Amino acid sequence: MSFREFNYTSLDEVISDAQNMNINLDFSRDLSILGKKHNISGYIVPNSLVFHPMEGCDGNFDGSPAELTFRRYERFAKGGAGLLWFEATAVVHAGRAYPRQLWLNENNISEFQRLFSKIMSDSRNEFGDEHNMVSIMQLTHSGRFSKPDGKPAPVLACHNPYLDEKQNIDPDLPVISDDELERLEETFENAAVLAKRIGFHGVDIKCCHRYLNSGLLSAYTRKGRYGETFEGRTRFLLNIIDRIKSRLGKDFIATTRINIYDGIPYPYGWGVDKEDYTKPDFTEPVKLIKMLYDRGVPVINVTMGTPYYNPHVNRPYDKGGYIPEEHPLKGIARLVEGAAQIQKAVPGMAVVGTGYSWLRQFSPYLAAGSLLNGKATLIGYGRESFAYPDFAKDILQSGGLNKGKCCITCGKCTELMRAGAVVGCVVKDSGIYAPLYKEYVLEKSKKA
After folding, report:
1. Taking the domains of the chain in order of start, what are their residue ranges?
2. SS3 state at 90
3. What is the pLDDT of residues 396-422, one digit of tens each?
4. 11-402, superfamily in CATH?
5. Quick one: pLDDT band at residue 448, thresholds 50, 70, 90?
6. Phi/psi of residue 211, each to 5°?
7. Is the peptide bond before 267 cis (omega within 30 degrees of 0)?
8. Pseudo-torsion of CA 234, 45, 381, 241, nearest 10°?
């Protein structure tokens, strides 16, 4: 069955379509497992639901959180998920994807501390002291997608003809040197120290969606210490994890949100079959994740694709820049089964699954079925958190999601990001973001 927009009126319709297409998705109408607690490095996550790291691009130009940042995280804190995976926060100015992307440094740490304190107090005030939400900060360098001052300023791990063409990158642009990467390892380590001072329970060394660290994993054509071989391509991530564990100890969580499949032809894609890039090959991702587990990484957040090249792989949708050749349920199954393969290979690690938002009000049943069948330990929601920040509270306290509050995967939040505006849900949070969409997207489109 080819692509279709979401128009299901019952869970039975979803199940029937999946069966007719021989798609393996596990559903359960018993959602109680989503309330299960988890112990991660001594921190008790009060349920099995996670806020994925979603960038609002609404910080101040100095990298500190601004008014809309505080507003978003107040909504998240009162939303009920047990694990808050805090959004991508740059470790250097040159690594910011947008001028308003958060950037953690010594000069603005007090504002991050104020935000973190408010998040935790809002959560406790809403749910009581027994709901001690765990928080992990994602640290990033945007690499080829860097635009710290509003114009493209790519920092390349390696050249990639598919992405270079998409971005109009000069084939003669130099790649980042080995010495620069080695200095960045220390920068990530120091940012982790700041995150711990703020109060975060851990950090994520972002390694997904073809940002700098993710680009290194597929740097088969790169020469030097950080390329070609498996050891070279994984060196940057592993060195940073080792630095953080050595400096901050076993009780501070060091982890990563990592691509396990790029969906880009070999030798320019990671986790892909060498003969058919549309098929995953998890051999190297599994090998790396086992090494991370052996280093004391207790939890991992897995994802696929990149929103800049193949967003239907990254997040199945109704509206986007193109119509995919596959049904969204196939994309969901690829994400769910990918997480399942990692969970099976490393059973002691808590795997955060992704890919649920397209199913709207029926997504909790897939989430529960995935957990019951050992396909993940925790379930993350991304776009849904913009549209429906209290999704976890409704699942756990009301027994499901209100279809009128769900994300409709229309892509307008992404359009805002690409237009350089602050980001949120244009449809479900229209009082704030609909005027911005009109100004930055619709009016600019008319002028163009």
Report:
1. 11-402, 411-448
2. strand
3. 999 999 999 999 999 999 999 999 999
4. Aldolase class I (3.20.20.70)
5. low
6. -70, 180
7. yes
8. -10
